[in-house]
């Protein structure tokens, strides 16, 4: 296992690439350079982070922070991403998936990003502790390193 130090930055779109690249650089540094894995991780990070940036602090007078922790477990062949913010409580697991069978004109706005996250990662955990949202996403890397 490699336990990487965390990255904590203001929750702004200006910092989006910095946060995504933090995760991707950690994965690349662990000799897990697989373009498909990196692509999937980029999508997952972008969707999770954009949701936090756009919604977590919408009722606050100032910009809050996002902390990202990226742990890679080589023996268990998985990556665990932890996103921490102090914004509005939001449990991704309680959000109803969009009905993709409906025509676009009949679908409610929003929710597609969460659906994408759920379809890419293997495990999602959420809890709220000490006024913080903690979202944990686990992705198996077994198929990418064998």
UniProtKB/TrEMBL annotation:
Residues 33-139 form the Histidine kinase/HSP90-like ATPase domain. It comes from the Bacteria. Gene3D superfamilies: Histidine kinase-like ATPase, C-terminal domain (3.30.565.10). InterPro entries: HATPase_C_sf, HATPase_dom. It holds the Pfam family HATPase_c_2. SUPFAM superfamilies: ATPase domain of HSP90 chaperone/DNA topoisomerase II/histidine kinase. This is Histidine kinase/HSP90-like ATPase domain-containing protein.
